[in-house]
Amino acid sequence: MSLESTLFRRIMSQFPTGVTVVTTRVGDYLHGSTVNSFTSVSLEPMLVLVCLDKKGDTHELLLKSGIFAVNILAQEQEGMSRLFATKGEGHSHNLDQVAYRLGVTGAPILEGCLAYLDCVVAHRFPGGDHTIFIGEVVDGALIREAPPLVFFRGKYVRLLESP
Ligand SMILES: Cc1cc2nc3c(=O)[nH]c(=O)nc-3n(C[C@H](O)[C@H](O)[C@H](O)COP(=O)(O)O)c2cc1C
Fold this sequence. Notes:
Bound molecules: flavin mononucleotide
Structural class: mainly beta
Helix content: 10-25%
CATH topology: Pnp Oxidase, Chain A
Strand content: 35-45%
Order of helices and strands: HEEEEEHEHEEEEEE
CATH architecture: Roll
């Protein structure tokens, strides 16, 4: 069976996800990019994964730094998601336009996120045009309770409260 890549994308878009910004630090340079391929992997030890496009800058930076933070975005942080998903107009995904503090690993924790996990890269696996980065969680916190940012069918949507 041959599946067109556009159909593959549309099928995957039926699966709603939360939205994160994965941040890292190489020397004094701080960087972030929007990522929804985030999932938990193991409880003991605590492991999570993100899949990063080999062509993206974040991929190269994570290879160098060996650390990353996953910042889980709130509904009102759509602007932040767009900022770290698109390049151009002088913006290269550095953290000049956002408020943050540095976590235990040195990766930036973004202000306003719902929760975060601070990780050290434990394993890397090939994943076609992406690399699967497995992070061992060394720190994390719940920051606040608020509706999450949700991505579905290629759009940001609101999560309906159950009746
Ligand atoms: C909702 C959303 C989710 C995304 N998830 C991923 C992802 O899981 N992995 C990835 O490599 N790119 C993902 N992207 C695309 C990157 O955010 C985008 O290509 C970005 O420009 C990469 O930046 P970089 O070159 O600084 O790494 C996503 C984009 C959006 C809008």
